Amino acid sequence: MAVGEIFLGAFLQLLLDRLAPREILNYFGLVKGVDKKLNKWSDNLSAIVAVLNDAEEKQLTERGVKLWLDDLRDLAYDVEDVLDKFATKILKRQIEGRDQASTSKKVRSSFSKLKLNFDMNSEIKKITERLQEISERKDKFGLKDTGTSSKAWSRPPTSGVLGGLTIVGRDGDKAKILDMLSRDEHNKVNFHVVAIVGMAGLGKTTLAQFAFNNNSDVMKEFEPRVWVSVSDDFDIVRVTKAILESVTSQPVKVEEFSKMQHDLNEQLRGKKFLIVLDDIWNKGDLYDLWTRLQSPFSVGAQGSKIIVTTRDLKVAKIMGATETEVHNLESVSDDNCLEIFEQHAFVKNDRPPNFELLQKKIAEKCSGLPLAARTLGGLLRLKEINEWEEILNNKLWNLSGKSDILPVLKLSYHYLPSNLKRCFAYCSIFPNDYEFEEKQLILLWMAEGLIQQPPEANRQMEDLGHDYFQELLCRSLFQKASENNSRYVMHDLVTDLAQWAAGNTCFRLEDKKGDNLQSVCFRHSSFIIGDYDGVQKFEAYREVKRLRTFLPLSLSNTYGNTYSYGWILARLRGQYLARKVIFDLLPQMQYLRVLSLKGYQITELPDSIGNLKYLRYLDLSHTRIACLPESTTSLFNLQTLILEGCHDLKALPMNLRNLVNLRHLNNSEVDSLKAMPPQLGRLTNLQSLPNFVVGKGSDESGIREIGSLSHLRGTLSLSRLENVIDAEDARKADLKSKERVDELVLEWSDNTQETQLGVLDRLEPHRKLEKLIIRVMLD
Description:
Blueprint: H1 5-18, H2 22-28, H3 34-59, H4 63-98, H5 104-109, H6 118-140, H7 171-182, E1 191-197, H8 204-213, H9 217-220, E2 225-231, H10 236-248, H11 257-268, E3 274-280, H12 286-293, E4 304-310, H13 313-318, E5 326-328, H14 334-345, H15 355-366, H16 370-380, H17 385-392, H18 407-414, H19 418-426, E6 436-437, H20 438-447, H21 461-474, E7 479-480, E8 487-489, H22 492-502, E9 506-508, E10 524-528, E11 532-533, E12 549-553, H23 565-572, E13 576-577, H24 579-585, E14 594-596, E15 617-619, E16 640-642, E17 664-666, E18 691-693, E19 714-719, H25 727-731, E20 741-748, H26 755-762, E21 771-776
Helix pairs in contact: 1-3, 1-4, 1-19, 3-6, 4-6, 7-8, 10-11, 14-15, 14-16, 15-16, 16-18, 19-22, 20-21
């Protein structure tokens, strides 16, 4: 289904803003006819933006309008590619001119000498023709300027993240589940299956989480406890591995399924275990899969339990749950729905004056579904009463169609501020039950151009991204994965909503097996990382000519478990990627903005990595890279470079200073790094730099280079401080002014001279520092 028009509205407005800067006009001003074409682009885009609100209404009932929006979206991506190409050329010339003895005026004047090559001129011509054709089709559909549009997003009043909310209306259900788990009937097998059955959005997973985390005397008998998210892909090997890893808190290195089962058998022998298999679907030969999976469970102690959550009663029967072991979860009452709604809609019981008059309508819209009540509450939170009435009376509630998406979820997306629409739709690249971190997602949003920093604003993109994330969390589109970690997850129905919103722009490789991927629509893709990923796995990518996102993801996260750094590192040590993918396939993906090779045991990158001119996010963490090619320093758009856990990396490229857009250089746990490359202080946009290794030679960065990095935040470690010869250089690091650094580590790697006391004295941090560590390595 086509993406909503306001997703496009935010996108097109961004393109209009990018056509305005003086640098773009200077760049093309003397090229015959191009300035007129760019002005024509602006005129046509402005006319299209004006009718998008009308297109939203009609695309739900008129297929032609839906197809028109699809074509418009594809064109918008292509326009952005061309503008990025222009901007990159400008940036390249600025960097080249920076090191020359010339003024900025001379550099700008050199633009007049530049002539567009034939290919660039041809691209402009093609886009002009496509834009004109789309504009003419707009008129044929009779689309009109309705005078209304989605409001631009602005930061809401600070209210904190909703958390610690009680489970409403489920006291009887909770007691019933605990009673089922306490039964200890002797049977042919030592374990019993307890099934929670009900339609989507009723709270099956929430009820299972309650039991899983319950610490009553009955539940304390279960040890170990394991949680596995199964979803619609019942991969018996993955599920078995996840159970074994959870039980042992160790990575599973064996590949043979029989060996995994043998090891699991030994681990469960004689133990009264509780295993939760969340969200099982009746697909394929479920009986055969279940028969094979349960083989090791029979050696557990009497009274062991398997909790299954499913939408299908047949699943419960196939997996052996008796009639007394099946709990059918019913919808909650209208009063319960209203209580859930109020938890999410009101900050401090700030009900609107005529709330009582709206209660009945709100309850009707929730249809007894806790998910609907939670989502509607998040949607109406902090809105005026007239906006409540507009939303509750929207015709989307009554729209008929084949879509399985709840009307309240469609409305929640419909009323998202324009900036957040693309950010939310992008999350469709995450598979069901994938747990993500806030910072990870914000950096991806930034790399994809979904967060724009207004020129007049003092706030950083990262701070805007935090606001975006918290807004989606408050609207219940994101939810905490558990109480014990900082990860988040989307309900599977919300994931369906994100896929609907994204249309064909995002896809997960596993979902497209056997499909024809020649469509030009696809731009963003993720895939599940395997132990060995050969070139054949990615053959489909050769057909996706303008792919922007190459993102491996791991499904090893299991609910309720937090693993140590060592465990995660060991788990990542076993992933391999075919050399042909790195040296043949990836260099062809010249439109990539996001490239992650995290965890793959690669040792080198090709020089051609420097040809990925639009790349903004490069994750090489936990690889065996020994050095980065010097061509990496021509990635002028790069914002994020993640090298965490690259223990073999000995040096960074000499010209790293050319990456003027770099904001995050994560080099934590890079043990072999001897010094930072020269003139690092030119990277004035840096936000995070966990470890600054102080150098002392002319081809290295000394401590004074820190001085100009005024935006640093989070943890900052200054290592090899023995290389500081002049204590005044330490003063020039200006740590006092870096008020967003909350943890500071000062480290000397050998015996220090008395002169180093002066260095320490001049490394005085700001007064609000939360943590200070001084570390001296003695012989």
